């Protein structure tokens, strides 16, 4: 029965392709299309976008021809490496100029964190928006989603991180910063000073910090909300160019975290026009980036406004100043 | 022919192997126009590689066709959207003399709905008549993968074609 069916399939294929003939001009059409593509690549080179085209083309060739990126059996590796290095360099430069305000939006989502030897943990992530510029950042967390999913006490908060108002002792690895938090749920606010190793933004610190992280929420909240840390992660070889895809309907280059950077899967999506990150996926957590010109109105976004009538409480972990 | 980029070389390649390659492309793509597009895309890849191709350009082109087709299907996911349609359709209640053609047509439509890897394996094994080892080498996967993909693909085809197969059997009995 099996052999009969196989023969039936083969016969059907014969029948289906019986009248297929090579059309006239097929080779000519392929050559013409190939020439047009070459011209487009040369024009792109002239326009200074060589890296993106090369990266996209090389990835398209290896990914398309072999089906698996990076597994093409013959050549192309050197060109790919050059294009990838160029993209990394441009992204590092773009996030390193620090001339724009970074806005990080996290939509409501559920993520699952795998734990070795234990059951995976599901976490509800509330909507939040953060802004970061130089040594200052501010974030609003809208906790309604958490309250609807088993955390009735979750509070809407507005938090500002900034440099301390007066000189505090610091070490080469630890830096002080001020944290001001407004809690809209119980109408209170607090201010304290903390020491952190994050502000240094060194490549080594970034790599060491992220490498041990297995919680995507922590990695997303702590590290990738700062241009300097994305810059550091790039500098230490923590991200490599792996392909391209579309984000919000626009083309994006994808950079994937290497083992040197993290145990968590990390993908950074970068605009090929500006080389600025537009999205990151960390272990299933999604965050979208926008980059804003630092106008006066937007710089005001970096400051928490304490609403009138709110009561000051002491910071839970550090003495209030 | 180490340089497949020359116009004469390309024409010669198509003259020698074009018919078979196009038939393979048509089977992989599911229709004549899509098959031509697939072959043209394969030829462009061949031109792009030019002198860097090691071995036979025809073999490279053949491999490229399989990979391009599988890649395109994965992106489009068309087999997922089309599958319910083929499941819902039934052969005519009254058997007629076109039952054999209906069965072949149904089999080819079902082949088009299979997941890319299963489809590629079936085309290579039963159209190109390659062995398991040759199929595995062409697709860059293990022989075990080829074996299981062929088995699952054929089973799926047989399951989905069962109404047409039953109609054909009834017609044979009637005649």
Can you put this structure into words, describing what you see?
- The complex is a heterodimer of chains A (321) and B (175).
- The N and C termini of chain A lie far apart (85 Å).
- Chain A has nine helices and 14 strands.
- Chain A has a domain at 101-302: outer membrane lipoprotein receptor (LolB), chain A, CATH 2.50.20.
- Chain A has a twelve-stranded mixed beta sheet with strand order 9-10-11-12-13-1-4-5-6-7-8-14. Chain A has a two-stranded antiparallel sheet with strand order 2-3.
- Residues 46-76, 167-172, 197-201 and 316-321 of chain A have low confidence and may be disordered.
- Chain A is an alpha+beta fold.
- The longest helix of chain A has 21 residues, at 26-46.
- Chain B is mainly alpha-helical and 175 residues long.
- Chain B folds into two domains: 1-76, Rna Polymerase Sigma Factor, Chain: A (Orthogonal Bundle); 78-175, Arc Repressor Mutant, subunit A (Orthogonal Bundle).
- Chain B is built from nine helices and no strands.
- Chain B has helices at residues 7-29, 32-49, 57-76, 78-88, 99-113, 116-127, 132-139, 143-160, 162-174.
- The longest helix of chain B has 23 residues, at 7-29.
- Chain B is globular, with a radius of gyration of 18 Å.
- The model of chain B is unreliable at 73-95 (pLDDT under 50).
- Chain A binds chain B through residues 2, 5-6, 8-13, 15-17, 20-23, 26-27, 29-31, 33-34, 37, 61, 63-68, 71, 74-75, and chain B through 7, 10-11, 14, 18-19, 22-23, 26-27, 32, 35-36, 39-40, 43-49, 52-54, 63-64, 67-68, 70-71, 101, 103-104, 107-108, 111, 122-123, 126-127, 140, 154, 157-158.
């Amino acid at each position: 029965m099996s052999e009969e069916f196989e023969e039936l399939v083969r016969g059907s294929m014969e029948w289906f392709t019986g009248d297929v003939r090579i059309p006239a001009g097929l080779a000519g059409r392929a050559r013409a299309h190939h020439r047009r593509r070459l011209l487009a690549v040369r024009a792109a080179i002239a326009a200074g976008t060589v890296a993106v085209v090369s990266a996209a083309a090389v990835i398209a060739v290896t990914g398309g021809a072999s089906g698996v990126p990076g597994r093409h059996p013959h050549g192309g590796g050197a060109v790919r490496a050059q294009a990838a290095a160029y993209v990394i360099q441009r992204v590092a430069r773009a996030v390193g100029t620090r001339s724009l305000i970074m806005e990080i939006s996290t939509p409501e989502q559920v993520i699952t964190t795998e734990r070795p030897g234990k059951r995976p943990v599901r976490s509800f992530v509330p909507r939040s928006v953060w802004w970061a510029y130089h040594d200052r950042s501010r974030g609003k967390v809208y906790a309604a989603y958490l309250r609807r999913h088993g955390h009735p006490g979750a509070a809407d908060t507005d938090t500002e991180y900034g440099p301390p108002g007066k000189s505090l002792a610091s070490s080469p690895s630890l830096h002080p910063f001020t944290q001001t938090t407004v809690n809209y749920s119980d109408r209170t606010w607090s201010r304290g000073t903390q020491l952190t190793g994050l502000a240094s933004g060194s490549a080594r610190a970034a790599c060491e910090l992220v490498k041990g992280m297995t919680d995507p929420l922590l990695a997303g909240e702590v590290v990738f909300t700062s241009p300097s840390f994305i810059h550091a992660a790039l500098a230490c070889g923590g991200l490599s160019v792996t392909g391209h895809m579309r984000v919000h309907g626009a083309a994006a280059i994808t950079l994937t975290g290497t083992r040197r950077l993290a145990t968590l899967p990390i993908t950074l999506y970068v605009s090929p026009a500006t080389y600025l990150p537009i999205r990151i996926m960390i272990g299933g957590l999604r965050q979208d980036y926008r980059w804003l010109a630092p106008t006066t109105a937007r710089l005001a976004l970096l400051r928490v406004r304490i609403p009138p009538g709110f009561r000051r409480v002491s910071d839970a972990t550090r003495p209030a100043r | 022919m180490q340089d497949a980029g020359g116009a004469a070389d390309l024409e010669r390649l198509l003259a020698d192997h074009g018919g078979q390659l196009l038939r393979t492309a048509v089977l992989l793509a599911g229709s004549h126009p899509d098959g031509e597009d697939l072959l043209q895309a394969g030829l462009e890849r061949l031109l792009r590689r030019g002198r860097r191709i090691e071995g036979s350009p025809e073999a490279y082109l053949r491999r490229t066709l399989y990979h391009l087709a599988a890649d395109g299907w994965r992106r489009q996911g068309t087999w997922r959207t089309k599958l319910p349609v083929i499941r819902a359709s039934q052969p005519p209640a009254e058997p007629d003399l076109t039952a054999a053609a209906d069965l072949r047509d149904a089999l080819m439509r079902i082949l088009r709905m299979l997941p890319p890897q299963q489809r590629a394996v079936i085309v290579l094994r039963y159209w190109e008549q390659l062995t398991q080892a040759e199929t595995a080498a062409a697709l860059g996967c293990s022989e075990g993968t080829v074996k299981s993909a062929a088995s699952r693909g054929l089973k799926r085809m047989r399951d989905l074609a069962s109404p047409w197969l039953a109609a054909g059997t009834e017609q044979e009995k009637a005649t």
